[in-house]
Amino acid sequence: MKISVDIIIFGGGIAGLWLLAQLKEQGYSALLLENQSLGQGQTILSQGIIHGGTKYAVKQQLTPLARHIKTMPAYWQACLQGTGELSLQGTKILSSHQYLWTPHQWGSRFVGFLTSKAMQSRVNKLKHHDYPTIFKNEKSEVYALNEPVLDVYSLLHVLRKKYLNFIFKIDTNTIKFHFKDKLLEKIKLNDIFIESKFFIFTSGQGNQFFLKKFNLETIKTQLRPLQMLLIKHLPYPLYAHCVDKNFKPRLTITSYPTSEGYAWYFGGEIAEQGSKQEPQAVFEKGIKELKILFPEMPLKNLSWKTVYINRSEPWQENGKIPALPSIQTHHNLLFAWPIKLAYAPLLTKEIFSVIKKNGLLPSFSSSNDSLNLPKPSVAIPPWLEENQWN
Q: Which of 130, 180, 288, 310 is the one with CA 20 to 30 A from 15?
């Protein structure tokens, strides 16, 4: 069997799925290939925060990352309401806001910055009677950020259902790549040949596999590891950045309803430092922080686990997070990294710029509908897994 498409996407995380959706909406013949589950890795392990950049601006300077990302909450909100470039209606919104606070014992030196003109569109100072339940006894000021928190599991299901005809599961170890005159001309899956004009790789850490396979290791990448902490059986939900007196995001917490209370998912400095620690040490640090921050909250009969994440990104000389989504091209191969879940639309915009600059126009064909290949399921988030809890 032989078919021809405009574009093949390798990688079914948020970057690949968003790109597929935009390509289909604009008439391109495209398919997405995934070798595990949709969202496996960085996407399903993300906290689902549609960052507006506040977390990156709390050092009292609007970094390039903070400036570029500030438009993302409004863009995503339109999509979630069904009025944006994509319809994401049906995606569960866990919280309409991510909150931010500095506990009184750590000081509040950045209050003036949060209320400055530069931050007015991002931050809303709450009155005490509007504080979430868990902050009712908090003496410090609490701010609501213009950053919704999504259930990534439901987001992936929405995209899978809508574009399932163009999504397939493959075994990357058996796929054959056929080059002609330095261009990747087609791939072979079992007895199926698929020709494509462009091949786009959005597989996170998996991009390194393809770069090595194609002898393109001059395109350098970096991994920034995290060890996230999950604690369940907590009585309240929490969606917040806890910032210390040095303006560092000490904790970034999101939460998920379970059969017995809530599971809290800890990112921020505790996860950064935790990448070099034993899981037990990360848990003990988390419990210590909870006792300081919420001394009245019961911490009995808890279950916990840690989750490792390797954030795969283009190489940076300073080893820090890149300021923008990144793409690297080699003939008709394009490698892409969104950097943040919220950046998927910006990454897609950059990819469209490249493919249109190369003269690739939509063919308005859907010949790949009939491919006899299995369909990938959606990855299970760690808070829904029954095993590996302590």
A: 180
Whole-angstrom distance, CA of residue 379 vs CA of residue 262 = 20
pLDDT at residue 32 above 80?
yes
Residue 20, amino acid: L
pTM to 2 decimal places: 0.93
Token readout for 25 is 């909406």
Question: Going from the N-terminus, what domains does the chain have, and what CATH number goes with each?
Answer: 2-43+155-220+315-380 (3.50.50.60), 54-149+226-309 (3.30.9)
Distance in angstroms (rounded) separating the CA atoms of residues 289 and 57? 23
DSSP 8-state secondary structure symbol assigned to residue 119: G
Q: How many CB atoms are closer than 10 A to CB 62?
A: 16
Alpha-carbon span 207 to 335, nearest angstrom: 7
How far is 99 from 134, CA to CA, in rounded Å? Answer: 12
Residues 14, 344: contact at Cβ < 8 Å?
Answer: yes
Give the tens place of pLDDT for each residue, 239-263. Answer: 999 987 766 788 999 999 998 899 9
